[in-house]
Predict the structure.
Amino acid sequence: MAMREIRVVGDPVLRTPCEEITDIDARVRSLVEDLLETVDADGRAGLAANQIGVGLRAFSWNIDDEVGYILNPRIVEVSEDEYQDGDEGCLSVPGLWFPTKRAWYARAEGIDLDGKQVIVEGEELMARCIQHEVDHLDGMLYLDRLDKAVRRKAMKAIREQL
């Protein structure tokens, strides 16, 4: 297991959709170990594989003292009429937080290392995490979901950090 370096905005791996995991081999097992170790630090709620430079569909989470992972996640349900609009941040956009609208509830389905079905669901922070990490796996950043004026402000702040 290894604590892995987080890729930051500007790295093309963050904009590349991740591939489905078709074989659960030693590489995938090692990836899961690294995801779990890397997400298990203060201030970290979720981590997608591409954030550590691996283009496979997997993410880990660390919410309410629960650390877990899911392979090949697909969001299968979100609340249609209940939303949250709180500040959101990202390990790949360090130090910046912006109001991001997300569904209040989300449910994702995928598999574990044994190929068994995994369901990850929740409200509020867990729902935000599921949506945020699946966006990463689809090659999106939360910045893409910001209102235009807020996005301009965010991009200016990012440029100032460089």
User: Anything to note?
Assistant: The CA atoms of residues 7 and 51 lie 5 Å apart. The mean pLDDT is 96.
